[in-house]
Amino acid sequence: MRVLPFLTLAALAAPVPICAQQEAEVTPESPDLVVLGRPLPLPPGVPAYGSVTIEHPRLTGDASGRVENVLADVAGFQQFRRSDSRSANPSAQGVTLRALGGNASSRALVLLDGVPLADPFFGYIPFNALSADRLSSVRVTRGGGAGAFGAGAVAGTIELVSATRRDLLPLAGEAFYGSANAVEASGSVSPDVGRGFVSLSGKFERGDGFFTTPPEQRTAATVRARYRDWSASLRAVVPIDAQTELEARGLLYRDDRTLRFAGADSSAQAQDASVRLIHRGPWAVDALAYVQTRNFTNRVISAASFKLTLDQRNTPATGAGGKIELRPPVGADHVLRIGIDARLGEGVLYEGAYAASGSVTARRTAGGRTSSVGAFVEDDWTLGRLVLTAGVRADRWTITDGFFREATALGVPAADTRVGNRHGVEGTGRAGALFRASDAVKLRAAAYTGFRVPTLNELYRPFVVFPVTTQANAALGLERLRGLEGGVDLSPARGVTLGVTAFYNRLGGAIANVTIAPNTRQRRNVDAIIAKGVEITGHATRGGFSLDASYAFSDSSVVASGSAAQLNGFAPAQSPRHTASATLAWEHAGFGGSLTVRHVGRQYEDDLQTDVLPAVTTLDAVVTVPFGKRLSLIGRAENMLDATIITRNAGGSIDLGTPRTLWIGLRFR
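-> structure tokens emitted (669 positions)
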């Protein structure tokens, strides 16, 4: 990895801490209240898009301790596979919403303090680099429409927000010991420095893991899914004047995993840095710049010979970008946002193919560059009880310098393919309305369009998950989404909210892994994936008790013709019709407990609907017992009933998800 970009920015820099799920609500803030480290206020039209917010207590209160599992509280949230970041290949951690089809690249745009988190080459989200105690909240906006976020939000946007000065404690930490000799430890120190503050934090975790292979399919080469990862981050916030502050953030992480067979090791590492300027005056400004250096390695072990067959030994990638947003003073009834943003990504894959004898049979390199530069304008107009919001943007995208080279073991060239450069301009927009019929009833409606450029991984990198090989496709086109939705938010009693949303989304040119021969697939654009359904979100509190629940019904189908006509009418791979989650929690005087039940319906592993992943329901629990004002003893139980979670089924070759896992630990605040 290259360290210069990190050192240039991270001399200032990074992370942090902050409660339960509810429909996003915009609350006015006192102009006299200065809270260091917070973003600009949300525009009043945000609730028109049916956003959901998860606050700090819920982020830090899950039995797994993992951000990606807490996101499953949101109706419609889905990872590519059912495994979390301890037992999935890192490159398979794509995120989508609303059953728009399984894809290892993210169809949802994931941001941390405005910076895209997706890997510049693969498009996956490095969840192991995130720690819940460094976050203040997460807001999930389902449905496309890039708006002021930037290109790529075809399924929605997930905005992670670092903790503010008000949220941070001078010293905090926790340590847990769990099943399979697992260890988790994290801590932060956040002193005031002058009129600003600095927060330094770190996280380490490891575990011997569990057998992802069922007992009847294990061999002498089968091993547990071991994992080991760490991250360190630094965040600094410095006030320039009463209305302006400069933020800098840096992140280092390293992630190592072993999956299924001895020697089937993967690693991911990164150095990220960003600088952000926020001004809250009459001309509000949000400006940021960031750089990311990433790398990934992966070793594929044959399920027949149990020898190394493919060594993806090096995949260096670099991402860079920035954004400038202005909010000019246009009257008390309007919030106008004008800005530009840019995103650049490049990467190269280096891999070697091996024979069963251990000799090299081929050496390959592949890679390229992608970019998008866009301009946007969006306005929220308040007319009494009615809020209207609308925005448009134009993006120029490029796919350039694509290539694929292959040489024999002796270095003799066998293939040298140059891929022609491509570029274009995409116009997208979104519009919504929010009507407060009464204090108890709010009606909303929205429509939007969006697009996504294929990742370098989809364009140039093949991969193998035994027994299936998936080929890359340098000719892939863009994905384009059109959607609309309507909903109602109810507050029938104090402490009770209920949100219902009906939606229709059409993802044109959806990229799918299409079967072209036995055990061979290729990434291809199908005509469309159409997803329609209903999402329900509820929240209730009474005394020390709270209940948060969600349910999503998604009727999703593929529209396909030509060489993919056999998929027409099928459900997209990895797309369940039913998902549900509910958390019942209690807290009083530092004592606390919670139960979380999650259900994922039956879904298909493959595009041809031949391999089924059965429905599964899991139950998690957390108990907290205080010892004094600052120390708590915490017990956690994941998958308490030890349900069988099938995460992969390729012709009967099965992978399993997290079994019953118990944790005990201490938390210091």
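The longest strand covers residues 360-383.
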